[in-house]
């Protein structure tokens, strides 16, 4: 079992379920309006029952990583 990272939440990100990548998101960003919107869209797509303990976001992984990096710099 993979050890968690303190202060981060694992999120599976990708446009296809078989190609999802685990990205560690800082907890301080989990309530960011963009992430909340992406999570809501993913819940509409996957449903809440399909999450299996790990959040999933339907989004290009490279774009999501760039967003996280940028948002982390601007978040206090």
Automatic annotation (TrEMBL):
Transmembrane segments: none annotated. It comes from the Eukaryota. GO terms for biological process: response to auxin. Pfam families: Auxin_inducible. Belongs to the ARG7 family. This is Auxin-induced protein. It comes from Vigna angularis var. angularis. The gene is Vigan.03G038300.
